[in-house]
TrEMBL record:
Keyword terms: Membrane, Plasmid, Transmembrane, Transmembrane helix
Domain of life: Bacteria
Native species: Morganella morganii (Proteus morganii)
Membrane-spanning parts: 35-52
UniProt keyword annotation of Transmembrane present: yes
Protein name per its UniProtKB record: DUF1145 family protein
């Protein structure tokens, strides 16, 4: 879980860097790359959130807060969700 939290912190740093880019633009070639990277990040995290939510049963759909967390943290949040689901399954098997 420690490494997942480190990944979340790093992902927040990346988002901060990408959001800061339009406020204080970089020189010309890097500026174009930052716009492409921001677009790619938004699209990929949006797809990740939509695909995860579509694959879950109706009772396990993500809440609005869960969707925001998956959008912000991406695969790191999905790893945390996977671990929680595995722990729930182990607890159900023991009962």
């Amino acid at each position: 879980m420690f490494l997942i939290n480190i990944g979340r912190i790093l992902m927040l740093a990346v988002w901060g860097f990408l959001v800061f880019s339009p406020v204080h633009p970089f020189p010309k070639p890097l500026n174009i790359f930052m716009h492409i990277a921001t677009f790619f990040m938004v699209v990929m995290h949006g797809l990740l959130m939509a695909l995860y939510n579509a694959g879950q049963p109706q009772a396990k759909k993500l809440t609005a807060a869960g969707k925001v967390r998956v959008f912000l943290f991406g695969v790191f949040e999905l790893l945390a969700l996977l671990r929680r689901q595995q722990a729930e399954l182990k607890n159900q098997d023991k009962s």
